[in-house]
Amino acid sequence: MEKKPDWQLAENNYYKLLLDDTLAGYWVRNFKDNTGYLSPAFKKMFGYQDEEMLTSIESWEQIIFPEDLDKLYKNFEQHVKSRGEIPHRIEVRYKHKDGSTVWVQAIGRVVEWDEDFNPVRMIGCHIDISKQKKIEDDLKISEQQFKGAFQYSSIGMALVSLEGKWIRVNNKICDILGYSNDELLATTFQDITHPEDLRLDLDLLQEVIDRKRNHYQIEKRYFHKNGEIIWVQLNVSIITNDAGDPLHFVSQIQDITKRKQTEANLIALTEKLTARNKKLGDFAHIASHNLRAPVSNLTTLINMYNQVDELEDREEVYKNFQRVVNHLSSTLNDLIDSLKIQENLDQTRESISFEEVLGKTKEILVAQILETDTVIETDFSEVHSIIYHRPYLESIFLNLLSNAIKYRSPDRNPIIRISTGKLGKGVTYLKISDNGIGINLKRHGHKVFGLHKTFHRHKEAKGVGLFMTRAQVEAMGGQISVESVEHEGTTFTILF
């Protein structure tokens, strides 16, 4: 064989040194004589000095994991059968001299074939990937830990795309919203968010995407699968890549429905207590106002009794006196009963005759009616009765009729006209008209039904009766309105 020139030997040594330095573990295998070469870097990778490890095939086969040796040779066979088309590249484990495990990526290639395409010479390298494998293992452990913490967290957790699609959800959020995992993943959070809460949620998400904030927390409503409204406390943050570009959102959801219900109950209770306190105040006004007419009648009857001399006339006055006293007692009882049952008005409705209520009112106001020669005309032909709360209807009649007499015109005897009828959609109306002094509605219309609002200089005007009447009408779900012309009269219309 021709001897290689010195410059070529020097060049070969140079390439050998270069490979030893640049590759983690350079190796050569000759298949004809089953010999090979293992670079010092190859041996050092597993903790051996160059002289401690032979360059034979057996030397590295003894320190590779047996199961990985089988995989390596199978990969090599595929490389040979494909005549090099399938690369020889595989990750395998070796035992380090100190007993630890070294992960390497084994890369090789047949560089010389005989005429029958049998491998003659192969070169390759081993690259230490132990650090990368540890990172991968740590990531797997971290992923498993995250998966466990995510999936079995006591609060709802979800990964949500920038467009709002559920990417991943845990068991708790499925329990809160009533959907299965697959059902949620087929929707977006927008699909099940209450419309009134959606705009705020979307605006805050956009602020997070625009890096105006890192996260946000709100209370919002979702629709449960069964249609119920679920209140949640939502915490949202964003995950970005290394360049800072947003990838997806992380949402944490806690069910606060019971807390919101408790808050609503407390608010309702507070409002109820406030309303009760107001009703107690109103009751004081109502009681004093409703008792004023019977007491005034008693005073008038006493004066009449003292002015008549005939026994027969005195007996008639005395009978009226007894009636007023009885009605005074009845009024007191009705007021007390009314206070007790204000919370259950619907349960205390009954069929009441308008004629019956008017009769009782006339008996209470008998002295004033006689003294003023008041004429009362009625037309209950269309509607005779109504389902209503009796104390309220009696109070309404008493207030409006006593006002009609009280604010009568000095130029004529009082005439009060009372009628009932039907409007569309089953609405019943009651009209009470008088020919009294009337009300200047342009001046006083805004305060006709106000508490302690008066618009006449009458000495008995207290500004309570109409306020109380409207309160009672509206408490029963009705409406009251007024029409009036000064010096001509007033008409009150009540819709039931």
UniProtKB/TrEMBL annotation:
<feature type="domain" description="Histidine kinase">
    <location>
        <begin position="286"/>
        <end position="496"/>
    </location>
</feature>
<dbReference type="InterPro" id="IPR035965">
    <property type="entry name" value="PAS-like_dom_sf"/>
</dbReference>
<feature type="domain" description="PAC">
    <location>
        <begin position="88"/>
        <end position="141"/>
    </location>
</feature>
<feature type="domain" description="PAS">
    <location>
        <begin position="11"/>
        <end position="83"/>
    </location>
</feature>
<dbReference type="InterPro" id="IPR001610">
    <property type="entry name" value="PAC"/>
</dbReference>
<dbReference type="InterPro" id="IPR004358">
    <property type="entry name" value="Sig_transdc_His_kin-like_C"/>
</dbReference>
<dbReference type="Pfam" id="PF08447">
    <property type="entry name" value="PAS_3"/>
</dbReference>
<dbReference type="InterPro" id="IPR003594">
    <property type="entry name" value="HATPase_dom"/>
</dbReference>
<keyword id="KW-0808">Transferase</keyword>
<feature type="domain" description="PAS">
    <location>
        <begin position="142"/>
        <end position="212"/>
    </location>
</feature>
<dbReference type="InterPro" id="IPR000014">
    <property type="entry name" value="PAS"/>
</dbReference>
<dbReference type="GO" id="GO:0000155">
    <property type="term" value="F:phosphorelay sensor kinase activity"/>
</dbReference>
<dbReference type="InterPro" id="IPR005467">
    <property type="entry name" value="His_kinase_dom"/>
</dbReference>
<protein>
    <recommendedName>
        <fullName>histidine kinase</fullName>
        <ecNumber>2.7.13.3</ecNumber>
    </recommendedName>
</protein>
<dbReference type="InterPro" id="IPR000700">
    <property type="entry name" value="PAS-assoc_C"/>
</dbReference>
<dbReference type="InterPro" id="IPR036097">
    <property type="entry name" value="HisK_dim/P_sf"/>
</dbReference>
<dbReference type="Pfam" id="PF02518">
    <property type="entry name" value="HATPase_c"/>
</dbReference>
<dbReference type="InterPro" id="IPR013655">
    <property type="entry name" value="PAS_fold_3"/>
</dbReference>
<keyword id="KW-0597">Phosphoprotein</keyword>
<dbReference type="InterPro" id="IPR003661">
    <property type="entry name" value="HisK_dim/P_dom"/>
</dbReference>
<feature type="domain" description="PAC">
    <location>
        <begin position="216"/>
        <end position="268"/>
    </location>
</feature>
<dbReference type="InterPro" id="IPR036890">
    <property type="entry name" value="HATPase_C_sf"/>
</dbReference>
<dbReference type="InterPro" id="IPR052162">
    <property type="entry name" value="Sensor_kinase/Photoreceptor"/>
</dbReference>
<keyword id="KW-0418">Kinase</keyword>
